[in-house]
Design brief:
GO terms for molecular function: ATP binding; metal ion binding; protein serine/threonine kinase activity. The protein is built from 18 helices and eleven strands. The termini are far apart. The structure holds adenosine-5'-diphosphate and manganese (II) ion.
Length: 515
């Protein structure tokens, strides 16, 4: 024994009455509940042993060592096992009861009510990918059990061998049992207090962790089901984001859904008031919600993975963050276009995977897509020249290739064409940038040639007109081969020198864009 520590025991002379009375009951006369004592005989043995030790070396145990129940000095693995088994048993009984009630309610009815969501014992699902996403988002790793935190040495009562600290195993055990009642309300803990159950700190912590992860697992399973049944509706987290925008007064009302695509859902909303003076919220807004179901985005990797603006970040991100990046990309690209004076939605705000922009249309009616309007030949020609001009601006001034340009992503409003849907747009030096541009040119030129615009350039002429390149190949196959060769050359150059070739800009300088 360390003599210094023994000497540290305060003078336990006759003190005030409250010091002699244990506030949590009478620990010395504890009668151990027999049925539980039978079950937890090890626990009993340990307690008896400790009592003996207390009698022999009361001071040291009580004060000098501080909290004597820690993860290190007491082996409670069998207690934990027992507690977990009891919990499991309890959960099973609960589920069995649920099943009985379910059966009683449903009887022979063809339409039945399922209590599935209320079950406690869930089959473990092997699909852990969601879990990975989850824990990357949380500041704490939920798989690491809480370390038992030592409590400061304060608060002891009694004297000599009767000293009782708040670390007293029995008292502490009872307190832990009572604290168990504070677990999530859905977590059935049974009548531990009634049974006079005493849980050691380690068992308590382990159970707490178990309750916590069970709660999360239940929520996840539930959420998964919600996703699969209500695929098109926005998930609760997005709903909360939208709700906050309305609550803050930024949006007046969200009126309804304009479009549900594979990768996004677009809503119409009436604009509210801005928090800052310098920003004006348009009277009508479009809210683009990028879908958080990950599947659809997997095949879009190639747009973003090779985009050097996002290169460093891509590899480190989890799928949820990648989806936010799509929204971010759309915002940046729209801002570039806006600054160049190209007709397109104006960005209002970006929050995670939700992008709010001005609404193209009026009175909740979105402007029609170019594919859905019948234009006079005059307007058709006008639209063609406007698009030719916009594609050039996009390339030269914004340093962008739309990469999904077609009559589906151009709206006709106010006698002109508006470009939308630019989350996948890339810079021309993107490893596939020129191929994307060629595809855009093909869509545009085919649409206007079919639409009767005699002046419309063919796809190769259009490509050269926009890129300023002079690819002379006569047929499409050779043309594309040259495009790919150029892309390869650029990539090699990047690999070797760490920077892009300047060949893409018309004046020989790499395009510089200041956002
Ligand atoms: P995606 O095609 O990837 O689902 P879009 O950005 O093309 O996403 O939006 C889908 C549809 O929503 C568009 O075709 C258009 O009809 C409508 N829409 C999108 N943004 C706006 C906007 N700012 N104003 C009006 N309608 C819009
Ligand atoms: Mn679209």
């Amino acid at each position: 024994m360390d003599p210094v520590e023994v000497a540290a025991v305060p003078d336990a002379g006759p003190g005030p009455a409250w010091q002699n009375k244990c506030p949590w009951g009478a620990p010395n006369t504890t009668s151990i509940s027999c049925s539980l004592a039978d079950v937890m005989s090890e626990q009993l043995a340990k307690e008896l042993q400790l009592e003996e030790e207390n009698a022999a070396f009361p001071e040291v145990v009580a004060v000098a060592e501080g909290p004597f129940i820690t993860g290190e000095n007491i082996d409670t693995s069998s207690d934990l096992m027992l507690a977990q088994m009891l919990q499991m048993e309890f959960d099973r009984e609960y589920d069995a009861q649920l099943r009985r009630e379910e059966k009683k309610i449903n009887g022979d009815s063809k339409v039945s009510i399922s209590f599935e969501n209320y079950r406690k014992v869930h089959p473990y699902d092997s699909d852990s990918s969601e879990d990975e996403v989850d824990w990357q988002d949380t500041p704490h790793d939920p798989y690491r059990a809480d370390k038992p935190t030592p409590t400061p040495r304060r608060g002891f009562i009694g004297k000599g061998k009767d000293i009782t600290t708040k670390h007293d195993e029995v008292v502490c055990g009872r307190k832990n049992t009572a604290r168990m009642e504070n677990f999530a309300p859905e977590f059935q803990v049974g009548d531990g207090i009634g049974m006079d159950l005493k849980l050691s700190n380690q068992v308590f912590n382990a159970l707490k962790q178990h309750a916590y992860s069970e709660e999360r697992r239940s929520a996840r399973l539930h959420e998964k089901k919600e996703h699969s049944t209500a695929e098109k509706a926005v998930d609760p987290k997005t709903r909360l984001l939208l709700y906050k925008m309305v609550n803050a007064g930024m949006l007046e009302t969200i009126t309804g859904c304009i479009s549900t695509g594979k990768e996004s859902v677009v809503f119409h909303a009436y604009g509210g008031r801005s928090a800052t003076e310098d920003k004006v919220i348009p009277p009508e807004c479009a809210i683009k919600v990028f879908k958080t179901t990950l599947n659809e985005f997997k095949n879009r990797d190639k747009y973003i993975k090779d985009d050097y603006r996002f290169k460093d970040r891509f590899s480190k991100l989890n799928p949820r963050k990648i989806i936010r990046m799509w929204a971010e990309k759309e915002m940046h690209n729209l801002t570039r276009m806006q600054n160049a004076g190209i007709p397109c939605p104006q960005v209002v705000i970006l929050k995670k995977h939700v992008l709010v922009m001005s609404f193209i249309g009026q009175d909740q009616v979105p402007a029609p897509k170019l594919k859905d309007v019948t234009l006079s030949s005059e307007d058709m020609k006008k639209a063609y020249y406007q698009i030719l001009n916009m594609m050039q601006q996009l390339y030269k001034e914004c340093n962008l290739v739309h990469a999904d340009l077609s009559e589906y992503n151009m709206l006709w409003h106010d006698g002109k064409v508006w470009l939308i849907d630019v989350s996948q747009s890339v810079e021309p030096t993107h490893p596939h940038g020129l191929e994307f541009l060629f595809r855009d040119c093909r869509n545009v030129s085919q649409f206007f040639q079919k639409g009767g615009v005699a002046e419309a350039l063919n796809e190769r002429e259009l490509f050269n007109a926009i890129s300023g390149l002079n690819i002379t190949a006569e047929n499409e196959v050779d043309f594309q081969a040259e495009i790919e060769a150029l892309e390869k050359m650029n990539e090699d150059h990047v690999q070797n020198l760490g920077k892009k070739l300047s060949m893409f800009s018309s004046n020989g300088d790499p395009p510089i864009y200041d956002e």
